[in-house]
């Protein structure tokens, strides 16, 4: 992928987190920065404004709560995508009609074998 190099100024703690994250994930600091910028710049103006106000006016726990909420939303969406992919790949045309709980359990066992 062709890209453009830009520089960014940040505090020491953020720079250290970027370096540690890059090392942990086997990426360059530029890749981590690029991913962060890609995400941030795609947020609507209302979200960027709210984040800025939370950082300026909120208590330290407020930003942590926002990060937990974002994490929860991302993991929920990831689960939905995985679930959709599993359903798309399931071969159910060979299953007989499922009427009882035993039928469902037997079908589940067959699908996982």
What would you say this structure looks like, in words?
This protein has 113 residues and is mostly helical. It has a domain at 59-113. 73% of the residues lie in helices and 0% in strands. The chain has five helices and no strands. The protein has helices spanning 12-25, 29-42, 45-57, 60-89, 101-111. The longest helix has 30 residues, at 60-89. The chain is elongated and about 60 Å long. The model has no long low-confidence stretch (mean pLDDT 92).
Short structural description:
This protein is mostly helical and 113 residues long. Helix content is 73%, strand content 0%.
The total count of strands amounts to 0
Low-confidence stretches: none
Q: How large is the count of helical segments? A: 5
Q: Largest sheet, if any? A: none
Helix content: over 70%
The ordered string of helix (H) and strand (E) elements is: HHHHH
**Morphology call:** elongated
Radius of gyration from the CA trace? 22 Å
Mean of residue pLDDT? 92
Straight-line N-to-C gap? 40 Å
Name the structural class: mainly alpha
Strand content: under 5%
Keywords: Plasmid
């Amino acid at each position: 992928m062709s890209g453009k190099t830009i520089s960014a100024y940040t505090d020491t703690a953020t720079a250290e987190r970027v370096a540690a994250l890059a090392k942990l994930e086997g990426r360059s600091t530029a890749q981590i920065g690029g991913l962060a910028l890609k995400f941030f710049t795609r947020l609507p103006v209302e979200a960027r404004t709210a984040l800025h106000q939370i950082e300026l006016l909120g208590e330290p726990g407020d930003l942590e709560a926002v990060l937990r909420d974002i994490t929860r939303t991302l993991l929920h969406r990831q689960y939905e995508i995985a679930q959709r992919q599993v359903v798309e790949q399931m071969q159910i045309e060979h299953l007989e009609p499922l009427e009882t709980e035993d039928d469902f359990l037997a079908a589940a066992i067959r699908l996982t074998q």
